[in-house]
Amino acid sequence: MADRDVIVVGGGNAALCAALAARERGASVLVLERAPEAEAGGNSRFTAGAMRVVYNGVDDLRRLMPDLTDDEVARTDFGTYTEAQFLDDMGRVTQYRCDPDLTELLVKRSFETLLWMRAKGIRFVPIWGRQAFKVDGRFKFWGGLTVEAWGGGPGLVEGLTRAARKDGIEIWYSARALSLIADDEGVHGVRLRREGRTIEARAKAVVLAAGGFQADPEWRARYLGPGWDLAKVRGTRFNTGDGIRMALEAGAAAAGNWSGCHAVGWERNAPEFGDLAVGDAFQKHSYPFGIMINAEGRRFVDEGADFRNYTYARYGREILAQPGQFAWQIFDARVKHLLRDEYRIRQVTKRTADSLEELVRKLDDVDAIQALKEIRAYNAAVRTDIPFDPNVKDGRRTEGLSVPKSNWAHALDTPPFEAYAVTCGITFTFGGLRIDTDAQVISSDGDPIPGLCAAGELVGGIFYFNYPGGTGLTNGAVFGRIAGSTAAGYAAAR
Length: 494
Ligand SMILES: Cc1cc2nc3c(=O)[nH]c(=O)nc-3n(C[C@H](O)[C@H](O)[C@H](O)COP(=O)(O)OP(=O)(O)OC[C@H]3O[C@@H](n4cnc5c(N)ncnc54)[C@H](O)[C@@H]3O)c2cc1C
Prior knowledge:
- The protein has helices at about 15-25, 40-45, 60-65, 70-75, 85-95, 100-110, 110-120, 130, 150-165, 215-225, 240-250, 310-320, 355-360, 370-380, 470-494; strands at about 5-10, 30, 50, 75, 125, 130-135, 140, 145-150, 170, 175-185, 185-195, 195-210, 230-235, 255, 260-265, 290-295, 325-330, 350-355, 415-430, 430-435, 440, 450-455.
- The chain is of the alpha/beta class.
- Helix 1 (about 15-25) runs parallel beside helix 15 (about 470-494) and helix 7 crosses helix 15 (about 470-494).
- Flavin-adenine dinucleotide binds near residues 234 and 457.
């Protein structure tokens, strides 16, 4: 006899969307969140709430954000972000390895899923501050990322939790799922630890939405490779691969890029795990307007290869591979106004100087003589005849360097100069469970495991090598909603 129709494992965006969708179809739902209430909400809570969504023009955006005023619309060039653009971005950044069926669903359901979230009480706003620059008095959005949840990640989790409670969904905090109750007929519930006791909770279907394995240094070293144990974790300490392990033990198939992950440039002296009081502000994402120097005083990536949204998720790996696992980002006064808010928090490792000679001496652990040579060579290589424009890939590049800079190249010549120390911050892992288009978990024999669905970070096959910014939450919402609905269908049929 099942205690509940559906049990959802996890307390982030994917889990709460699954719970809401299952409840909407009439199922009784229990959510198990490993974290205590004060730390609940997973990585979703650490985000800025940015969500990549298809829109064919400002009319679509007005449906998502009815609060947009005529004046705001008149002052802004929102452009479009069509299905074709989203599909193209997913293909390009994953080197065309992303699962075509899952990716098509992600893209095609993105808009309707955000509308659905809106109906559940989530408000959306344009990302004026970070995804649009002002040109001639008008904001212009760039990089396909236009919408964020009001209140960022904390606002999103709070809103979804409020909606869940209102719909009569039960949430147990500090409740860690340990294993699935499964037999030849499929999955029938979860063994969990709560208040120091191991108990069983039975259900007709289970949705796993317990995140990736990035918070476990042993799994990181095992699957991502040597050195990954040294990365800092940007988000929750609770995503240690439990959901993936439980499903694999029950016969699920592994899928996707198990040696890949999303990792960014992150404050060098940040703590081992994310800090909710700081959120995502340890990240340092304005490198396209400066340069990065390693311990040997050398540049090592094309900082302007593409818009930040399409490079930031793989540059953490590049930083981790540098001697000492760190780099310094360097800017001059002319681009200071383009630096994101995260550069102005108290918890930064920052150096300023009135000359480049003085600056390089202040960069801890760096070969100062080589760093100065490198900056001068870079400065001399900039094509100053090409105009600088932060809103487009301006093609203002360097000429003749072994590590080129392809856009936004800008000589560091105007004091004061600023430098920020970064290391690698891992966001989430790409490998995980295989699911089908109903978000059912597929067994290693190729059939769905009855009564088992999955969504969010712990699903493999969607992201490979890289990731278009703002897709994680959309992915969790789209597949969480599908998973919840499929789980409710099981509950009705079993
Ligand atoms: C600093 C930062 C900024 C980010 N910014 C963005 C952004 O702006 N836009 C975007 O789209 N993405 C962003 N991301 C990525 C995004 O957070 C994730 O892709 C997304 O939140 C994953 O959602 P999820 O529900 O799958 O996982 P999570 O939100 O991580 O939820 C997993 C949940 O499972 C719980 N759990 C784990 N193990 C167990 C267990 N055994 N039993 C019960 N519960 C368990 C955890 O406590 C947690 O509540 C960011 C990530 C970080 C860390």
